[in-house]
From TrEMBL:
Protein family: Belongs to the PrpF family.
Listed InterPro entries: OMA_tautomer-like, PrpF-like
Source species, domain of life: Bacteria
Record key words, sorted: Isomerase
Pfam families assigned: PrpF (PF04303)
GO function terms (MF aspect): isomerase activity
Protein name: FldA protein
SUPFAM superfamilies: Diaminopimelate epimerase-like
Organism, scientific name: Pelagibacterium halotolerans (strain DSM 22347 / JCM 15775 / CGMCC 1.7692 / B2)
Record NCBIfam families: OMA_tautomer
Amino acid sequence: MTMTRQAAIPCILIRGGTSKGPYFVTTDLPADVESRDKVLLAAMGSPDARQIDGVGGATTLTSKVAMVQPSTREGVDVDYLFAQVSITDAFVDTAPSCGNILAGVGPFAIERGMVKPTGEETSVTIFNINTNSRIEAIVKTDADGVVYDGDTEIAGVPGTAAPVRLNFMDIVGSKTGKLLPTGNLVEEINGVDVTLIDVSVPMMIFRAADMGKTGYETPAELDADAEFFARMEAMRMIAGERMGLGDVTGKVIPKVAMLSEPKGEGHISARYFVPQNTHAAFAVTGGLCVSTCAMLEGSVSDGLAKRPEGEDRLVLIEHPSGLLDVALKTKGSGVDLEVISGGAIRTARKLMAGELYVPADLLK
C-alpha cells in the first residue's frame, strides 16, 4: 500500500458574510492554474457530495476560497481572486466573484500583515481580479489588529459581529462592459419578459409571476421543482449568448434572480439562483445587481419595487433569510442610469488559523 505524504499550506478559515472558506496568500499556492485548482479541490474535499476529505461544508456557500496577495497596482492594497469550488465535479470556477467572501479579505489582509491597522477603522483597498474592479473595505481595528466583536446583525448569520463596510466601485459592466449588455430594458426569452443587466455580476432577472411562482417560496420548495429549473436554465443559456458571454453551459454566470412585491419593510422581494440552486440568503454582488434593477425605471421591476427618492439611497432586498441592505448611488434614469457606487454592510469572523494539508505530490 502506497502512503502519500502530506504538505502544509498556511491558511485562515473565515466566515465572510453568509459564506465560509479558507483564505490563502496567493503565493502559497501553485502559480500554474491547473496545479492550483487540483490543490483547491483536494483542500475542499471535492469531488464528493459530502466533501468528507476536506474542509468544504458540502454546500455552495461553504465551498469557496479566497486568494489574496499584496498589490502592485497604484492606490490598491491587495489583489483578491475568488474561486467557487464545485462540490461534485472536479471544477474550480474563477469567473464569478463573491461579495460575502470579499467581506473577509480586509480582515485577512490585516491578519497577514499586508495592511497595517490605522486606528478604530482601517480602510483596505481591494482589487477584485474576477471582476476587474476596486472595492474599499472598512474594517474595525484596534492596536492589536482586527476587531471581530460587535453588535451588527446580518440575515443568515446567528449572533452579531463587527461591521465590514464594502464600497464597490467600477461595478457596471463587470463582464460585459455595459449596464444593459443588449441595450434593452426588457426583452423576451422563451415567452418570458427579462431584464439582462450587469452590475458587479451579469444577471438575468424576471418576475416570479411570469414563471408561475409567487416569489415567496422557500429555497427548498424552489429546489424541488426540477421543471422550473430546467425552464430557467434554457432561458439562461439564451441570456448568456445575448449578453456576449458565449456558451454558458456549466458556468455560473449569468446568475439569475426572480422578483416579487415586498411583503415587509423592503423595497423589493427576490430569490437568487447560483444558478443550479436557490441561494439560502443573498449574494452581495447579486444584491448590487438586483437593487440596481429594482431602481431602474422600465425594467421588469416596474410595478413591483418601491423606489426611494433621490440618487443616494438605501435599497432593502427581502430574501429567504431576512433583509440585505444596499447603499446605492446613481445618476440619471432608465437606459441612461449611471451607477456611481454600491455599498453593503457585512460581517466577518476568524474561525481558525493554521495549516491546511493536501497530498504533497500536488505541490510538485
